[in-house]
Amino acid sequence: MKLFIDTADLNEIKEIASWGILDGVTTNPTLLAKSGRSFQDVIDEIFKLVDGPISLEVVSENADDMVREAKQIVSKVPQKYQKNVAIKIPMTPEGLKAVKTLCKLGIQTNVTLIFSANQALLAAKAGATFVSPFIGRLDDNGQEGMRVIEEIMEIFCNYDIPTEVIVASVRHPIHVIESARIGADIATVPPEVIRKMVKHPLTDAGIKSFLKDWEKVKK
Ligand code: E4P
């Protein structure tokens, strides 16, 4: 399973990319606002940090404007990185029209705010490169998000649908394990959850006792 980082915090992306574990990045307007940097600042840096799909979201509501905005975003990215741009498009009828056009133009798309297998199927049919079902928000709403991932994976496997499934709105490390067990293509994970995935108290205790014992034998 590929691992994307779900943040626009450039320091976090830089640090965690240095561990050699990142395959891509997802952002959204809320994450950009939290980063405290301008959209252009983030675009200028983010592609240098991770060599993989970088999702950047449009905020227009009709298809023509979404396509125009997507082209503008691509044009702001240095040419050598443009192949890594994935335009995030909301799951609406206008969004589907935009996905169809962007697919014909060879621009990758990530259809976002997906909450059902039917939405994922429609996005894939329109030509989405990626679909992002938001499992944490489903859990918050009293519906088991991971079951939607199972349904989407089953449907995409049944028909060899090439669209990749990004498990999004990940809240804790168990979401990541379950995504990998189901066989999801990608999980996009916030930095604080990636940090929890690294840690185990027995690892820390083991290092401490090895260092203590090393003191006894080192001379
Ligand atoms: C995915 O691409 C989204 O940026 C993200 O996973 C949303 O997660 P949230 O529900 O924690 O806002």
Write up this protein:
The protein is α/β, with parallel strands linked by helices and 219 residues long. 53% of the residues lie in helices and 17% in strands. The chain has helices at 10-17, 29-35, 39-49, 63-76, 93-104, 117-126, 135-140, 145-158, 173-182, 191-198, 201-217, and strands spanning 2-6, 24-26, 54-57, 85-90, 108-114, 130-133, 164-167, 186-189. Strands 1-2-3-4-5-6-7-8 form an 8-stranded parallel β-barrel, surrounded by 6 helices. β7 (164-167), α9 (173-182) and β8 form a beta-alpha-beta unit. It is globular. 38% of the residues are buried. The mean pLDDT is 97. Residues 6, 26, 28, 31, 112, 132, 134, 136-137, 168-169, 188 line the site of erythose-4-phosphate.
Structural class: alpha/beta
Poorly predicted ranges (pLDDT <50, ≥5 residues)?
none
* Spatial strand sequence of the major β-sheet: 1-2-3-4-5-6-7-8
Straight-line N-to-C gap: 45 Å
Helix content: 40-55%
- C-alpha Rg (nearest Å): 19 Å
How many beta-strand runs? 8
Portion of residues in beta strands equals 15-25%
